[in-house]
Every structure is written in structure tokens, then in C-alpha cells.
Amino acid sequence: MPIIQSVRWSPGGDALRIVDQRRLPEEYVERDLTTVEEVCDAIRTLAVRGAPAIGVAGAIGLAVVAASIADRPPAEFAERLERAANAIRCARPTAVNLPWAVDRMRARARADSGLAPRAVAEALRAEATAILDEDRAMCRRIGEAGLPLVPDGARVLTHCNAGALATAGIGTALAPVYLAAEAGRRVSVYADETRPLLQGSRLTAWELSRAGIPVTVLTDSMAASLMRGGEVDLVIVGADRIAANGDVANKVGTYALAVVAHHHGIPFYVAAPTSTLDPDAPDGDAIEIEHRPAAEVAVAPAGPLVRVHNPAFDITPADLVTAIVTDAGVSRAPYDFGRRAKEEGLLPSTA
After folding, report:
1. Predicted local distance difference test score (pLDDT) of residue 340
2. Catalytic status, residue 240
3. Please, which of 17, 45, 94, 326 could form a disulfide with 10 given CB 3.0 to 4.6 Å?
4. Cα–Cα separations (whole angstroms), residue 83 to 76, 213, 265
5. Residue 189 Ramachandran class (φ > 0 left, ψ -120 to 50 alpha, else beta)
6. How confident is residue 350, by pLDDT bands cut at 50, 70 and 90?
7. Tens digits of per-residue pLDDT, 298-310?
8. With pLDDT > 70 as the criterion, what percentage of the chain qualifies?
9. Which domains does the chain have, with CATH numbers?
10. Is the pLDDT score of 348 beyond 70?
11. Cis before residue 11, ω within 30 degrees of 0?
12. For the chain, what is the HEC assignment?
């Protein structure tokens, strides 16, 4: 089952290699990024996207930048590295994985600040590689934790893309699907088209069909009638940020799916790495929602009285979430991902 690698080191180890997701499904194009401007532009314009993937991209990108300035005097190296870290960290605001990964890289640089710049750059390379490897292992653990939720014959509805293209591994929401197929279970997927950028039809359908998993694309507004018709067994989506109380920020349209799934008694699962948990956000109201350019929305009449509302994400309240699947296990309400729980290594009871 060939599963794509969306973000990784280039073969020469001197660049961040990504699959340019803006070109899919018509063209499969890989790009090597070597500057902070290229890394930020790729994240901002969704050439690389998905919360875990942009975290890995930010880490590798910062390591590449560090190597490129390692011949500078220590003070200049530190100043330019910090500037690059700030730029990458702010490239997109909602997904917590990006600042998490960049802050981890900064902590490593500060811990090694007494070393020569080249040694710091090597340490950052090792840290970025660890983040990459951990992301791959994390995806597998999410798949293993979520596998019992996907029985033989399951018809799974998903939204946006939370598969291999959104991570460095086999995905988050799609990880249990991939492992179910790997285990020989019959599984099929309904993929919401995901307006306005069509990540479901362009990316999820391409990725699943490439892996040999049956997939049916539907427009976002069709999901409710599909559930009413008894054709969906469970919903699995990803997340870009999860608040301490279990409120979930994910691609806009997720909230509507959760409401309809709740109405029809269909399990609604969220699959995400523990790095997506934000203990400092008490609830969904504390999560900054990114608003994308109006030009992304399909044809609308021009004129001063016509405005475009284009938030990239919405908030799904915790009470609509059946369970949250992370690399630490399956957590059920009441959720507590607060600072104290994180520091003490405590998570909600798993089942």
C-alpha cells in the first residue's frame, strides 16, 4: 500500500523537500526549500498543509536555515536564527503544531548557545530529524489506538485531508483507516469535497485511491442526507488545535458534521497528535481562527456591498465529540488537557 511522504529531508540533506499540494491531483510535484522565505511561503500558501506536516516543515526549514548561516559570527548567527524562527512560527496562526515545533527548536538552540554556530546547526538538524521521526511514529500510534473504532465493513466519513499528505507519516484521521485496510478489513471512505479549496476531493480522494482504498467524494452539503440515509457508520476528522476542555479547531465545516452526526447517533471521532493539544487555551473561544483571502471563495459578484466571509477553521464543542484519539490513546469526556494535566503526564481516562 504505497503511502506518500509529504514532508521530509531532501536526498542531499540540505533542503526541506515537500510535495506541492497546490498542484494535486493534476500534477505530482516535489519542491526543495532552502530559505526562510520559501518555507514561510509554502506554509502560508498551503503548498505544505496539515497541522503535523507544517510543524515538521517548520522544524526542518529552520534547521536548513541554520546550516546556511553557520559561518556567521555567533551573535549574528543567533540573531538571524531567531528572526527566522519568528517568521516561520507566525506563518499560519491556528495550528498549534507549528509554534510547538519551532519553540522546541529554539529551546534546543538556546541550550546549545555556548557552542559554535556550526555545532548549533548540527544540533538543530538532529532535533528536526527527531521531530520528523516522532511524527511518523505518532501517526502509527494514532492508527493503532483508533483501529478498534473501525470495524470490518465500516463506512467512514471524513472532512478535509488528515492523511499522509497532512503529516510526515500515515496521517491522523486516516491512520486507523490505513491500518484497518492493512489488517484486511473492508473499509470505504466518504470524503467531503471541503470548500472552498477542495482538500477532500483534491487530496484525500487522490491519496486514498492511490493506496487502493475505495473513496466516494461528495459536496459538503450532502453529508447530512447521507447520514440520514444510514450510509455512514462513523466520522473521523483531524484537528489543528484542541483546547484544554476538548473543544476542537478543524477545517471549517467540521462543526456542522458534528452537529448532524450527534443528531443521527453516529460516533464523531477526532484524531490528532498530543502536540495538537493546547493546555493554554481553556476552550475554543481562546483559539485564533485564521481568515483566508476572499479570492479563495468561488465566483461572487463584485461591488462594495458584496463581502466574503472565509474562515479556514471552525470550533466543534467538546460535547459533540465522541472521543479524541491521540498517540497517547483514546480519550473520552470529560476532557482535561490543561496545563496541570500536561505537566503531570495526566490525560483523560482511556478506553
Report:
1. 59
2. yes
3. 17
4. 11, 43, 49
5. beta
6. very low
7. 777 778 888 889 9
8. 95
9. 7-140 (1.20.120.420), 142-343 (3.40.50.10470)
10. no
11. no
12. CCCCCCEEECCCCCCEEEECCCCCCCCCCEEEECCHHHHHHHHHCCCCCCHHHHHHHHHHHHHHHHHHCCCCCHHHHHHHHHHHHHHHHCCCCCCCHHHHHHHHHHHHHHHCCCCCHHHHHHHHHHHHHHHHHHHHHHHHHHHHHHHHHCCCCEEEEECCCCCHHHCCCCCCCCHHHHHHHHCCCCEEEEEECCCCCCHHHHHHHHHHHHCCCCEEEECHHHHHHHHHCCCCCEEEECCCEEECCCCEEEECCHHHHHHHHHHCCCCEEEECCHHHEECCCCCHHHCCCCECCHHHCCCCCCCCCCCCCCECEEEECHHHCCEEEECCEEECCCCCCCHHHHHCCCCCCEC
Full-model pTM: 0.88
Grid cell, residue 197, equals 479549496
pLDDT, tens only, 91-118: 988 778 899 999 999 999 999 988 999 9
32 within 8 A of 26, measured Cβ to Cβ: no
Rounded to the nearest angstrom, the gap between the alpha carbon of residue 187 and the centroid of all alpha carbons in its chain is 23
Rounded to the nearest 10 degrees, the angle between the axes of helix 74-89 and helix 117-146 is 30
Which member of 240, 247, 278, 327 is catalytic?
240
Distance CA 250, CA 242 (A): 9
* Cell 509554502 sits on residue: 42
- Rounded distance, CA 142 to CA 153, Å? 20
